[in-house]
Automatic annotation (TrEMBL), chain A:
Residues 1-23 form the signal peptide. It comes from Thauera phenylacetica B4P. This is Lipoprotein. Keywords: Signal. It comes from the Bacteria.
Automatic annotation (TrEMBL), chain B:
It comes from Thauera phenylacetica B4P. GO terms for molecular function: 4 iron, 4 sulfur cluster binding; electron transfer activity; metal ion binding. Signal peptide: none annotated. This is 4Fe-4S ferredoxin iron-sulfur binding domain-containing protein. The keyword Iron-sulfur applies. CDD domains: DMSOR_beta_like (cd16371). Pfam families: Fer4_11 (PF13247).
Length: 78, 208
């Protein structure tokens, strides 16, 4: 191997090392983009769809409203 | 239908823990998990106040915001529920919740060893077939589908804990406050963070 070729090996190694060292100096975008999460689980039946109401939403709402109002004992004593 | 909410009247709660027991029994909640509990402020001091606390089914729920697997969903009635099959037991929801509602069956354990998160479902079950064995095993009974309210509220002996549509619940509480002429001041920021206590002290000292 000639002396010239021998000299170029450390030079090439140095250039390679410099390239590796500077590789991390590039600009990386630092702004996070937040995304609204979406429910990824199983779908759930609505309360009036299953159970005893069998899709009758109005009946379910009426039953629940009556039950809610029943919590007011002033209604009971009047 | 509006939003389903709980409201606990601190003037009426007698710390009987009936709501806690009813919930535990109705859903066969495992050891170490309490979906509901009674918190007493100034315990043993004259004028102590108790409130029953569970998931408040927040309108803008922080548990939903932090869940890395997006396993939470909100029903049309404003009930916050989750899919246990998606839950990885990371515990983020536990740290995010201001009410300590999310509970883990294995208690404080290492990441991934806590088990699936469990919390109050407003007695609305979960994402399984309504009233099926799978739903009961994972989430407890689905009373809402039967047109019933959460058992904790229905069992409350003094009707301190009321549940249902926010409008109805608010109207019941408003009527109570108007009739008895007191009570609104024991609910809210001051009662929770001590302002009320200081105000009472000032009143006793005749400064206000």
């Amino acid at each position: 191997m000639s002396a010239r070729k021998l000299k170029s090996i450390p030079l090439a190694a140095l250039a390679g090392a410099a390239l590796l060292g500077l590789a991390a100096c590039s600009e990386v975008p630092q702004v996070t983009v937040y995304e609204q999460g979406q429910y990824r689980g199983k779908t759930d039946a609505r309360p009036w769809e299953g159970g005893e109401f069998k899709g009758d939403r109005a009946a379910w709402e009426k039953a629940l409203k009556e039950r809610s109002r029943g919590q007011n004992e002033y209604n009971r004593i009047q | 239908m509006g939003r389903m909410k709980f409201l606990c009247d601190a003037e009426r709660c007698i710390e009987c823990n009936g709501c806690v027991t009813a919930c535990k029994n109705e859903h066969e909640v495992p050891w170490g998990v309490n979906r509901r509990r009674v918190v007493t402020m100034n315990d043993g001091v004259p004028g102590e106040r108790s409130i029953s606390v569970a998931c408040m089914h927040c309108s803008d729920a922080p548990c939903m915001a932090v869940c890395p697997t997006d396993c939470f969903y909100k029903t049309e009635d404003g009930v916050v529920l989750h899919d246990k099959d998606k839950c990885i037991g990371c515990g983020y929801c536990f740290y995010a919740c201001p009410f300590g509602a999310p509970q883990f069956p294995n208690g404080p354990a290492a990441f991934g060893a806590r088990g699936k998160m469990d919390k109050c479902t407003f007695c609305a079950g979960g994402p399984e077939e309504t009233n099926s064995a799978a739903e009961y095993e994972k989430y407890g009974s689905n009373r809402l589908a039967d047109g019933k309210l959460p058992l904790c509220a229905e069992m409350c002996s003094t009707k301190a804990l009321i549940a249902g549509d926010a409008d109805v619940v608010a109207n019941i509480f408003r009527e109570r406050v108007l009739r008895r002429g007191t009570g609104a001041e024991v609910w809210g920021w001051d009662a929770a963070y001590g302002g009320g206590e200081r105000k009472q002290e000032r009143k006793r000292e005749g400064q206000s």
